[in-house]
Amino acid sequence: MFYDRAKIYVKGGDGGNGCIAMRREKYVPFGGPWGGDGGRGGDVIFIADEGINTLQDFRYKRHFKADRGSHGMGKNMNGASGEDLSVRVPTGTVVRDADTGRLIADMVENGQQVVIAKGGRGGRGNVHFASGTNKAPRIAEKGEPGVELWLELELKVIADVGLIGFPNAGKSTFISMVSAAKPKIADYPFTTLVPNLGVVSAGEEGSFVVADIPGLIEGASQGVGLGHEFLRHTERTRLLIHVVDTAGTEGRDPVEDIKIINRELEIYDPRLATRPQIIAANKMDIVPEAEENLSRLQEAFGQKYEIYPISAATKQGLDKVVQRVAKLLEEIPKIEPEQPDEDPAMFESEDRFHIKRDYDGNWRVTGKEIERHVAMTYLEEDESIERLQRIMKMMGLEQGLMDAGVKEGDIVRIGDWEFEWSE
Question: Which structural domains are found in the chain, ordered by start?
Answer without folding.
Answer: 5-155 (2.70.210.12), 161-331 (3.40.50.300), 349-420 (3.30.300.350)
